[in-house]
Write a structure and sequence with these properties.
Blueprint: H1 6-17, H2 23-47, H3 56-87, H4 108-133, H5 143-174
Helix pairs in contact: 2-3, 3-4, 4-5
């Protein structure tokens, strides 16, 4: 096998080292996670004292909001850990057995599926909140806005199904089934 020219080796080493340019972006996601935590706590602190006077519909809306924020935070963690491990470097940490089982095992395909599943769940919660608001006030239902929320949600669902189908076809093609 022929030896690579030194300039080609240096160029490839530089390209490989460029993955570290992603590290500040993952740090920014950690800051975003902190921001979401603050918003979650703010919502919880605001609504907790009202729990005894809150209607069941209002309680459900509050809980859906908290679930929505939690799902967004989960999505951030999945992107943070999986993205870092897939594209920058493996996390070599002494976790004392506390490491989530999926860490280090989610490849790019799995990351896409987890992302779209989280986005669909967040969209569904937002849509449910809008449906629950119907009839709560004297304002007429904005049918156009509701229509577009459903269309956007179904677009996310359709995208998820298409991504899953593409991954399934790719996996089966690699196995020689297609």
């Amino acid at each position: 096998m022929a030896q690579k020219p030194a300039i080609e080796s240096k160029f490839e080493q530089g390209l490989f080292a460029a993955r570290w340019l992603m590290a500040p972006m993952y740090l920014g996601l950690v800051v975003s996670l902190g921001m979401l935590t603050i918003v979650f706590c703010r919502e919880l602190i605001y609504y907790a004292p009202q729990v005894l006077s809150m209607s069941s519909d209002k309680a459900i809306l509050v809980i859906l909001t908290l679930i929505d924020l939690t799902l967004a935070a989960n999505l951030l963690l999945i992107v943070l850990f999986s993205g870092y491990e897939n594209f920058v470097s493996k996390l070599d940490i002494d976790d004392g057995g506390d490491r989530p089982s999926w860490m280090g095992t989610v490849d790019f395909s799995g990351l896409k599926m987890k992302l779209i599943a989280s986005i669909v769940a967040i969209s569904a919660i937002h849509l449910l909140k809008q449906f629950m608001e119907i009839g709560k006030s004297d304002a007429p239902v904005n049918r156009d806005a509701l229509f577009w929320l459903v269309v956007i949600h179904m677009t996310f669902v359709g995208s998820g199904v298409l991504m899953a189908a593409m991954d399934w076809l790719t996996a089966n093609a690699k196995k020689g089934k297609y």
